[in-house]
Design brief:
Strand content: 35-45%
Structural class: mainly beta
Number of strands: 10
Helix content: under 10%
Largest sheet: 10 strands, antiparallel
Shape: globular
Strand order of the largest sheet: 4-3-2-1-5-9-8-7-6-10
Radius of gyration: 15 Å
Distance between the termini: 49 Å
């Protein structure tokens, strides 16, 4: 058995499921999620997902506002800067060691170190735009309220 991970699966239709998984692997078409409050695990099809959020806990802090863009405290050894704009308009910023245009997805380490997300697996089919390096800063500016 693999490591148990707490995840929030966000679907393209806007729905979410929270639970644990032991068999999530990048580039596999499915994984199993033991959904909170349900007796059996469900098979999750990645083709239906926007992203998989690996979280510290399921409740998070609803009062906390995520910090937009990039923090100066982040170190360059976290990988390349990347900003993702999903088809629904949401923008997330972070760092990646594994982005490639020929893969179905990639892991992103959130730029906001205080967020509840440990890492995010982004499904490429759910993205409108992926910006890497200096272009990521430009896309990140779009999520800040003072950018208008």
């Amino acid at each position: 058995m693999g490591e148990t991970n707490r995840v929030v699966a966000r679907f393209l239709d806007g729905s979410t499921l929270k639970g644990t998984t032991e068999d999530f692997f990048p580039n596999r078409p499915t994984f199993h999620l033991a959904v909170l409050g349900q007796p059996r695990s469900q098979e999750i099809r990645c083709a239906q997902l926007k992203a998989v959020f690996f979280v510290k806990d399921f409740s998070g802090d609803p009062k906390r506002e995520d910090l937009p863009g990039y923090s100066v405290s982040n170190l360059p050894n976290l990988g390349k800067k990347v900003a993702v704009q999903f088809k629904d308009g949401e923008i997330i910023c972070g760092y990646t060691l594994s982005y490639s245009t020929d893969r179905s997805g990639f892991f992103l380490l959130p730029a906001d170190e205080g967020a509840n997300n440990l890492r995010v697996y982004v499904l490429k089919h759910a993205t409108k735009k992926v910006a890497v390096g200096p272009a990521a800063d430009d896309l990140a500016k779009q999520q800040r309220p003072d950018a208008a």
